[in-house]
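Limitations

Structures in this collection are predictions, not experimental determinations, and the ligand pose is part of the prediction. Treat each record accordingly. The example that follows, with zinc ion as the small molecule, is included so readers can see exactly what is and is not provided: the inputs are given verbatim, and the output is the predicted complex.
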Amino acid sequence: MDPQTSEAPAEPGSMQRLLLLQELDLSVDRLTSRLNELEAGGELRDARARLAETEARVGELRLALDSIGREQRRLETDIDSIERKAEAERQRLFDGSVANPKELQAIESEVRNLVGRKSHAEDLLIEQMERAEELDGRRGPLEAEEAEARQRLAEIEEGSARELVEIEQALAERRSEREQLTPQIPPDILELYQDIRRQKKGVGAAALVDGVCQACHQQLSPMYLDRLKRTEGVRRCEYCRRILVLT
Ligand SMILES: [Zn+2]
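Predicted complex:
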């Protein structure tokens, strides 16, 4: 076999495969980082914390409303009993059972006192009713928030489990594709690519399109481009030093 014809097309071919490998490796990197995220369970932890927080707020609101309800009933009972006492005292004023003017004066003063206490209790009751109305208005939105947090948690639990399976499957596929691809790339190029990849955020090789390196997006100088075209070996970017693949 003529080495010229068998080797010449092999070189551009293996460089194209290097670009394929780069795509696969970036995809493996993305999947692995997502897998780590899922396994760390940050989203689940956040969703659980959010549910616990809304549950606590709804719980506090219900307790506050219960306590206001009790206070309202206590005030209503008070008002009733004051009213009854005042009525009884008024009766004594007018039924002729008391004739002593001093005693009548004392009764009148007691009635005024009772009327004052009743009016104060009524004011307190109105305050409690207003407070209850305000809290009751917050209850609906807060309970909706709680329901939403509960649903979100369920979705995340279900989604994470499904996504984990999908990612593990995709990772196995990419890794097997990678295993088939790497023997078709010369070991020295592979080693250089992996070295650069470690140093340069996972990107070791990039296409050169219209004189622009697709990794660092710099336009190579005409002089450097000219030199690249005449290079027999591995071509590197003038700026980021990554391996360049002519497309
Ligand atoms: Zn570059």
